[in-house]
TrEMBL record:
Source organism: Rubrobacter tropicus
Name by which UniProt lists this protein: EAL domain-containing protein
Domain of life: Bacteria
Domain EAL residues, every copy: 24-284
């Protein structure tokens, strides 16, 4: 080992670095650089209203356009960004960018609809002091009305898994709610089983996790869960978004179960903002007729 080989600090350093932490450091340095150079991009996945098939809005999904490695998906860098705190800067960039696009979409539709842009918040972003103030100033800067922005938190954040204090979680959500933004629980059904937070928190939307939607055709349990969530949501006056819809059959079942909104490859993959603009314009044209 390095210790046996003496007190050469260089050797100690080299041998104590396993491949994993080395890759981690490289990734962290790369991410830091990407943040400065604005190599981070945002794609938008449409949220479709099942009643008329039109886009009700879109979810902002971050991408890292790595000069050598190509497009890096969020799963490969969000956890590290969360650990290192880089998520704060990344999240702010995504929020600014998403609000600017949503303002463009609203202008494009000239009153013929107000699409909502949804932005994911990680635990660390959610608990960063001053989040409501940041959101308020970004909205103002973009000239976006608060109702056109939605924020997605996970069940873990809603349940205060990281131990910040349930009171603080509720207070932050109330402050955000007071601004007029919409609040969603992402990946609903995959976290803790306690539903008591639904009573406590000022939520607007439940996003049913893809893992339940993907089993809808074959699995009666999944169907029962989605049905129960749709009923629960209706009775609590929440909207439901079904995530990860990939087939027409799933869409039919979701309609039957009373689901009003959906996302998934069946409708559209995450797209560049310009393609979302084109879809919105197309929807407007088909609604008003030639
Ligand atoms: P999420 O918020 O639950 O987003 C849904 C993920 O499912 C996206 O993956 C999306 O591309 C993918 N997806 C959508 N429809 C389908 C489908 O029909 N089939 C399949 N197989 N997948 C589908 P993506 O973009 O890789 O994002 C993964 C996760 O990374 C997100 O899950 C979210 O938790 C996180 N994330 C993405 N962007 C951001 C961000 O800006 N900030 C933070 N904090 N987290 C982000
Ligand atoms: Mg999400
Ligand atoms: Mg989700
Ligand atoms: Mg999900």
């Amino acid at each position: 080992t390095a210790k046996e080989r003496g007190k050469d600090r260089h050797v100690v350093f080299e041998t104590s670095m396993d491949g994993r932490s080395e890759r981690r450091l490289t990734l962290e340095a790369g991410l830091r650089y990407a943040l400065e150079r604005e190599e981070l991009g945002v794609l938008y996945q449409p949220v479709v209203r099942l009643a008329d098939g039109r886009d009700a809005g879109a979810e902002a999904l971050v991408r890292w356009r790595h000069p050598q490695r190509g497009v890096v998906p969020p799963a490969a860098f969000i956890p590290l960004a969360e650990e290192t705190g880089l998520i704060i800067g990344i999240g702010e960039q995504v929020l600014r960018e998403a609000c600017a696009r949503a303002r463009e979409w609203r202008d494009l539709l000239k009153g013929g609809g107000t699409p909502t842009v949804w932005v994911n918040l990680s635990a660390r972003q959610f608990h960063e002091p001053g989040l409501p103030e940041l959101v308020e100033s970004v909205l103002e800067e973009a000239g976006l009305d608060p109702g056109s922005l939605g924020l997605e938190i996970t069940e873990g954040v809603a349940m205060d898994e990281s131990g910040f204090g349930a009171g603080r979680t509720t207070a932050t959500l109330r402050n955000l709610k007071e601004l007029g933004v919409r609040l969603a629980v992402d990946d609903f059904g995959t976290g803790y089983s306690s539903l008591s937070y639904l009573k406590r928190l000022p939520l607007d939307v439940l996003k049913i996790d893809r893992s339940f939607v993907s089993g809808l055709e074959k699995n009666t349990e999944d169907r029962a869960i989605v049905s129960a969530v749709a009923t629960l949501a209706r009775d609590m006056e929440l909207e439901v978004v079904a995530e990860g819809v990939e087939t027409e059959e799933q869409l039919h079942i979701l309609r039957e179960l009373g689901c009003s909104l959906a996302q998934g490859y069946y409708f559209a993959k995450p797209l560049p903002a310009t393609e979302v603009s084109a879809r919105l314009e197309g929807g407007l044209a088909s609604a008003t007729g030639p």
